[in-house]
TrEMBL record:
It catalyses: a 5'-end NAD(+)-phospho-ribonucleoside in mRNA + H2O = a 5'-end phospho-adenosine-phospho-ribonucleoside in mRNA + beta-nicotinamide D-ribonucleotide + 2 H(+). Its cofactor is Mg(2+); Zn(2+). Its EC number is 3.6.1.22. Residues 150-274 form the Nudix hydrolase domain. Transmembrane segments: none annotated. It comes from the Bacteria. It comes from Qipengyuania profundimaris. InterPro entries: NAD-cap_RNA_hydrolase_NudC, NADH_PPase-like_N, NudC-like_C, NUDIX_hydrolase-like_dom_sf, NUDIX_hydrolase_CS, NUDIX_hydrolase_dom, Znr_NADH_PPase. Belongs to the Nudix hydrolase family. NudC subfamily. GO terms for molecular function: hydrolase activity. The keyword NAD applies. This is NAD(+) diphosphatase.
């Protein structure tokens, strides 16, 4: 299973779209996800910690996460969002590695949602205050009435193959020997295939063809949807964009297989990154 997928929650849109029905779930039976800011708070068994709505101030903004076996689950919006890249928070990286797959999926969704609310308290249209609506799946401006919705940014992450070799890159500032698939945001007016082609051309200087979809992953740092793709190129004559990439190289299937096993010529991404799963998929083709 790809990390951050497979949440056990029923998102229950019929509840969050009905104010009276939602209000009926805001009671002593409701569960509150325990967060320290945006960090997960774990219980004695190493699972996500839970409390009750009595654990938050009356004026706290609450996001309805969904239903877990009929019980309503909420998370409170923290005072501030988190603009730091995930690599700058080794404690979070370590905690994530200990969570079970279903807990990690639940936490990822809650983190993305509450972080968005913490960073969008003002209207992008008029600058007025915004208030939480639809159980946390919307914010409405108190001045102009504009509605704003939680944002998800699409990112293509792509394997590029040349004559049985796989193109991988090391970004600027990455540790020596760490390689991953190239990636980049989808821009307005682009299809996924066009974004793959543009990003590879910009970063590696080669054209790609036969772009195909492999898998996707929600990535809550802060809120991306990683769209995993595979493509081919007819050239290994690279022109590297040195403003973004430190290295780009082609590796054999044996190289990639060895790296996945932990003893290859490079360090591959951790298992909870979709790039790791894309490499496994490629090796197994």
């Amino acid at each position: 299973m790809i990390a951050f997928t497979g949440s056990r929650l029923d998102r229950a849109d019929h509840v969050r779209a009905d104010p009276e029905r939602l209000a009926g779930y805001i009671n002593w039976k409701a569960r509150l996800l325990a967060l320290d800011g945006l960090m997960p708070a774990l219980d004695d068994d190493g699972r996500l910690g839970w409390g009750t709505l009595a654990d938050v101030p009356e004026d706290a903004e609450l996001c309805f996460l969904g239903l877990d076996e009929g019980k309503a689950c909420f998370a409170a919006v923290p005072p501030r969002g988190d603009s730091r890249p995930r690599m700058a928070n080794p404690q979070l990286w370590s905690l994530m590695a200990t969570l079970s797959p279903d807990d990690l999926a639940l936490y990822g969704g809650a983190r993305s949602l509450t972080d968005w609310h913490a960073r969008h308290r003002f209207c992008a249209q008029c600058g007025g205050d915004t208030k939480i609506a639809k159980g946390g799946w919307q914010r409405d401006c108190s001045s102009c009435g504009a509605s704003h919705f939680p944002r998800t940014d699409p990112v293509t992450i792509m394997l590029v193959e040349f004559e049985g070799h796989l193109m991988l890159g090391r970004g600027l500032g990455w540790p020596e020997g760490s390689f991953s698939a190239l990636a980049g945001f989808v821009e307005p007016g682009e299809s996924i295939e066009e974004a793959v082609a543009r990003e590879v051309l910009e970063e590696a200087g080669v054209a790609v063809r036969d772009v195909s979809y492999v898998a996707s992953q929600p990535w809550p740092f802060p809120s991306q949807l990683m769209i995993g793709c595979h493509s081919h190129t007819d050239s290994d004559d690279l022109t590297i964009d040195e403003t973004e990439m430190a290295e780009i190289e082609f590796f054999t299937r044996a190289d990639v297989e060895a790296a996945l096993a932990g003893n290859g010529p490079f360090r591959c991404p951790p298992r909870h990154a979709i790039a790791h799963h894309l490499m496994e998929w490629w090796v197994n083709q």
